[in-house]
Amino acid sequence: MKSSVITFPGSNCDRDMDVALKKFGFKNKMVWHADAELPKSDLVVLPGGFSYGDYLRCGSMASKSKIMKSVINFANSGGMVMGICNGFQILVETGLVPGVLLRNKYLEFICKNVFVKINNKQNKYFKNINNEVLELHIAHNEGNYFCTNDQLKEIEDNNQIAINYCNQNGKLEDQFNPNGSIKNIAGIFNKEKNVLGMMPHPERMIDTCLSGEDGSLFFKNLINNLK
Amino acid sequence: MKISVIITLKKDVLDPQGKVIHQTLDGMGFNDVNEVRQGKYFEIDTKETDNDKAKAKVEDMCKKLLANLVIENYKIIDPK
Prior knowledge:
The structure holds two protein chains of two kinds.
Chain A: E1 2-7, H1 14-23, E2 27-32, E3 43-46, H2 66-76, E4 80-84, H3 86-94, E5 100-102, E6 110-118, E7 133-140, E8 144-146, H4 149-157, E9 161-166, E10 185-189, E11 195-198, H5 214-226
Parallel strand pairs in A: 1-2, 1-3, 3-4, 4-11
Antiparallel strand pairs in A: 5-8, 6-7, 6-9, 9-10, 10-11
Chain B: E1 2-9, H1 16-27, E2 39-45, H2 51-66, E3 72-77
Antiparallel strand pairs in B: 1-2, 1-3
């Protein structure tokens, strides 16, 4: 399976993602934002970081970069595109997934492990994963998912919520919502479920010495689903 | 020609920064403030000399980059 990780000026989780993808069997290529063509890929990843210094709105500049035209075409033709953290912010700015990510409700940069409940497994990202709840890491200042009421209705009608913040038993309550996101949303799909944006970093949970293994579950499952 | 744009958050969108500014003003003794909403201001110096064309271009910029219309409104200030 071939993957591509896009590096924007200010991306800083691109190499972590490269390590994670390779560890679980992807042949990964790093792609520079100013390139026009995507290499042949089964998965494209927009990594975390602070593209363009978060100027204007997080992800807004990166969403207009040269490579993104190819990424958008790839996504619109059914290609798998995953945006993590700043990558999620870039995805909402392209319009590939609905909504926006606002400043965290309590104005704090949040850096900690959280639990997320998988809301929809009818897709290549989460199909066949045994766990209902994953422990993943978040590190962001703008992760407060917001959308209009009309958009929320559409998202729910199409079962586009991928994961929600919860406790370790999978309980969705306000107290387990770290950033003020509507409905504890931590990640969403496009309508077709080939594009996934999420705030948590699975690439930071692939080594028991450093953190945990729930990211490993995610990547192992993902590559099997793509085969 | 210089054109100015003001971007503001829509009414229903939470503005925690505005809220904190409000609280700070309150703490400083400015007790009669009802609400503070923070926005952005842009000055765009364009080569276009026709007023209407310049405004139309800036409007396009607002829709495509400067504002995110899910959460923000934009207002173009007439250069006259």
